[in-house]
Automatic annotation (TrEMBL):
<dbReference type="InterPro" id="IPR004995">
    <property type="entry name" value="Spore_Ger"/>
</dbReference>
<protein>
    <submittedName>
        <fullName>Spore germination protein</fullName>
    </submittedName>
</protein>
<dbReference type="InterPro" id="IPR050768">
    <property type="entry name" value="UPF0353/GerABKA_families"/>
</dbReference>
<keyword id="KW-0472">Membrane</keyword>
<dbReference type="GO" id="GO:0016020">
    <property type="term" value="C:membrane"/>
</dbReference>
<comment type="similarity">
    <text>Belongs to the GerABKA family.</text>
</comment>
<feature type="transmembrane region" description="Helical">
    <location>
        <begin position="390"/>
        <end position="412"/>
    </location>
</feature>
<dbReference type="GO" id="GO:0009847">
    <property type="term" value="P:spore germination"/>
</dbReference>
<dbReference type="Pfam" id="PF03323">
    <property type="entry name" value="GerA"/>
</dbReference>
<keyword id="KW-0812">Transmembrane</keyword>
<feature type="transmembrane region" description="Helical">
    <location>
        <begin position="418"/>
        <end position="438"/>
    </location>
</feature>
<feature type="transmembrane region" description="Helical">
    <location>
        <begin position="326"/>
        <end position="345"/>
    </location>
</feature>
<feature type="transmembrane region" description="Helical">
    <location>
        <begin position="450"/>
        <end position="477"/>
    </location>
</feature>
<keyword id="KW-1133">Transmembrane helix</keyword>
């Protein structure tokens, strides 16, 4: 009778914590089950509830290990998720210290068993207490280990995360000749460590922000307390907390939730795989967002110059760095305007060409049966298809497809009189110029803009180009990222070290850009050098 009464009491205690999102008349639990309530002093009930959450023993992911601590005359239960927790750390820091504890009379253990085990027995570096079921489930899923003690309404949470991740390697997108060769990996703790390696500053703040309405996911916000503006930090933090989606797997998805204008061609945030760039942005007053499963770090807010500058601009000498920036500016203009200028001249402004060049172009286009617009759209779309196919095919044959495809298709199109040879040259120059744009999001934006310029040039010639260029410039100066003007500190003009289109020598960059409203605007003492 006592056993039946105990089972009935357990059943009554079991009911309150399972809550379904809607009516469910079947005996099976709803797919969405939210845990509410706190641990009880009944060890077996706590274990049963956690087992129910993970469908144990049908689901073998949850591992339950019962331990008898003879010196304290008690049974304890260790729970962890296979593959998420480090089994060796559990054995060395939890099991071994409890089993090897010497027999002795300890008043402290008898009075406060929980704190005694936490402070004097376990050897894990990070230990905390938790008494809420949902928090315990989240800790288990994060790779931590739970220790439950009898007649205690709190659980001991030990940091034993053992998720596997790849080793630190060289960047694959932001490659440099001069500069560090380290890139982020898919582990947030490793990425935070890399940032601290490049920025050894006690003012570097790392805050944990949770996203999601029911299943909280940790996101880490990093900034320098003595530099970053409190308004910008609060704005970024508030935008992150407003994300209520339960499944945000990585920063690529989170970035789309944080953007000011999701339908704009311009990005509001930047993703970088280089820890040295993150450290440089933090020193100017930006914020960095780190998240698990992401081999990149999110930078906010950003400006056009954040996307325009390359990773190794500061590592090269003054003349070399500025020469590369001039090449980059030229490449952006070539990518956007060369095809559209060719259409405008061919259709509306033939008189602008020298007579010999005009006759040469007319001669090679004599056998082409298509108008210039159809001809150039065919070649541009073919080049984009070729570029995308090279990215998707295996790396061992990607370069072969790129070279052979470009040569064969270009030559075959000319021989078949589908396109003119001069157009093949224009599309090739445009494609090569687009590869110089350092940021991938800015690269895509410019490539899409190219087609819009082509349409306006086909309709109105140079007048259409001027009209759309005016719109683009007006949009750039009105666009903002987390309240920061996109073209600042140039438009509006604010104090800075003039590190925009060109850069001064590094020893003259002693002022932080005022567009981020940094607390400390002086990076170093004013330079005192003889020219």
């Amino acid at each position: 009778m006592q056993e039946m009464h105990a089972k009935g009491e357990l059943a009554l205690l079991f009911k309150p914590w399972r809550i379904s999102t809607g009516p469910n008349t079947s005996d099976k639990p709803s797919p969405k089950v939210y845990l509410e309530g706190e641990l009880t002093s009944n060890l077996e009930l706590n274990v049963l509830q956690l087992r129910e959450v993970f469908a144990y023993p049908d689901n073998l992911a949850l591992r339950v290990r019962r331990v008898y601590v003879q010196s304290l005359n008690m049974h304890a239960v260790i729970l962890y998720i296979e593959g998420a927790a480090d089994a060796r750390a559990i054995e060395e820091n939890m099991l071994k210290p409890m089993l090897e504890l010497e027999k002795r009379e300890l008043e402290e253990a008898a009075v406060d068993r929980l704190n005694f085990v936490k402070d004097h027995v376990l050897s894990s570096l990070s230990i905390k207490l938790s008494n809420h079921y949902q928090d315990i489930v989240d800790e288990l899923l994060s790779g931590n280990t739970i220790l439950l003690l009898p007649e205690v309404q709190q659980a001991i949470v030990a940091d034993t995360r053992g998720f596997k991740h790849r080793n630190i390697s060289s960047p694959t997108v932001e490659q440099v000749i001069n500069g560090p060769k380290e890139a982020f990996v898919e582990a947030a703790d490793v990425n935070r460590s890399l940032i601290r390696k490049y920025l050894k500053d006690n003012q570097l703040q790392c805050e944990k922000v949770h996203i999601g309405q029911h299943r909280k996911q940790p996101v880490y916000l990093m900034y320098l307390r003595n530099i970053a503006s409190e308004q910008i930090v609060d704005r970024v933090k508030r935008r992150i907390e407003q994300v209520q989606r339960d499944n945000v797997p990585n920063l690529y998805i989170l970035a789309q939730h944080l953007e000011d204008r999701p339908y704009s061609l311009l990005p509001s945030v930047m993703l970088t795989e280089r820890p040295d760039r993150v450290a440089a942005f933090l020193q100017e007053g930006h914020t960095a967002v780190v998240m698990d499963n992401s081999p990149v770090v999110l930078i906010a807010p950003i400006t056009f110059w954040s996307l325009f500058h390359a990773a190794e601009d500061q590592y090269n000498r003054w003349l070399t760095g500025n020469f590369m920036r001039l090449m980059r500016i030229t490449s952006i203009l070539l990518t956007m305007l060369i095809p559209s200028v060719y259409i405008a001249i061919s259709n509306y402004h033939v008189e602008m060409l020298p007579t010999d060049l005009m006759l040469a172009i007319a001669a090679v286009r004599e056998r082409v049966p298509f108008p210039v617009l159809a001809e150039i759209l065919f070649m541009e779309l073919t080049f984009e298809l070729l570029r995308e196919s090279v990215v998707r095919v295996p790396a061992t044959i990607g370069s072969t497809i790129g070279i052979v495809g470009a040569l064969v298709l270009g030559q075959a199109a000319v021989d078949a009189n589908l396109v003119s040879p001069i157009l093949v040259i224009i599309v090739a120059i445009t494609g090569l110029a687009s590869y110089i744009v350092p940021d991938i999001t800015l690269n895509f934006s410019i490539r899409i803009q190219r087609f819009i310029f082509i349409v306006f040039a086909a309709w109105f010639g140079f007048f259409g180009l001027a009209l759309y260029m005016t719109y683009v410039m007006a949009y750039l100066v009105s666009f903002k990222s987390f309240g920061v003007p996109f073209m600042s500190p140039v438009a509006p003009s604010l104090s800075s070290s003039d590190d925009t289109f060109l850069r001064p020598p590094v020893w003259r960059q002693w002022i932080r850009p005022a567009n981020l409203s940094p607390k400390d605007t002086i990076r170093s003492d004013p330079p005192e050098r003889n020219s």
